Amino acid sequence: MGKYDYICKLTGSKNYPQWHQQITLALKGKGLWQHCSKGTDISDYEEYSIAKPTISNIFHPTPDEIKEIREWIKDNTKAKEIICR
What highest taxon heads this organism's lineage (predicted)? Predict the structure, then answer.
């Protein structure tokens, strides 16, 4: 039994609403929903979409910028893993 076995397999438009609800809850529960959300209201922390961080100087990224990008990539991959399980 897998960790996300409670999420139904998406088989088409008929079960999309159920699948969407279950995926949304799983992603929100892991703090990853912002990687899928299209929210634009910065004051709505749960819905506000997280964009991939950018580097101010591509030839000389700071350690903090590198850390932030690596963290974003890790979390984005976790979100994709849940969706594609």
Answer: Eukaryota
